[in-house]
Amino acid sequence: MAIKRTGSEVDRRRPGNVCLWRDDLAAVVHTLTEVATDIRMSASDFTFDHVDDLAEVKADRFDMAELSAKKAEFT
C-alpha cells in the first residue's frame, strides 16, 4: 500500500504573541538560507529583503510578521 499525504505541507499554526529580536530573526533567516530559497519577510505594512532593513522602520513593535521561503531543489 502506498502512503499519501492528505493534509497540507504548509504549517499554518498561529503561535499567539511572540517577542523576537532582530538578531534572533537574522539567525532564523540564516538557518533558512541553508535549506531554502526565495526568502520573503514582511512586518505590518512593510516588506523587506534583509533583516537589517528593519532598522530603517520607526516602529518598536509590529502587529503581524510573516516569514516565508521556498524549499531548495537539490540536484
Structure description:
The structure is a single chain. With 75 residues, this protein is α+β, with helices and mostly antiparallel strands. 16% of the residues lie in helices and 24% in strands. The chain contains one helix and three strands; from the N terminus they run αβββ. The protein has one helix at residues 22-33, and strands spanning 36-43, 46-48, 65-71. The chain has a three-stranded antiparallel beta sheet with strand order 2-1-3, covered by helices on one side. β1 and β2 (46-48) form a beta hairpin. The longest helix is centred in the middle third of the chain and has 12 residues, at 22-33. The two termini are 28 Å apart. The model has no long low-confidence stretch (mean pLDDT 82).
Task: Explain the layout of strands and helices.
Layout: H1 22-33, E1 36-43, E2 46-48, E3 65-71
Antiparallel strand pairs: 1-2, 1-3
Comma- or semicolon-separated keywords:
single chain; 75 residues; alpha+beta; 3-stranded antiparallel β-sheet
Helix share bin: 10-25%
Sketch the topology as an H/E string, one letter per element: HEEE
How is the largest sheet built, in terms of strand order? 2-1-3
| Rg, Cα atoms, Å | 15 Å
Q: Helical region count? A: 1
| Average residue pLDDT | 82
The backbone outline, from C-alpha atoms, is: globular
Structural class: alpha+beta
The biggest sheet, with number of strands, parallel, antiparallel or mixed sense and barrel status, is: 3 strands, antiparallel
Count of strand segments: 3
**What percent strand?**
15-25%
Low-confidence stretches: none
The first-to-last residue Cα distance is 28 Å
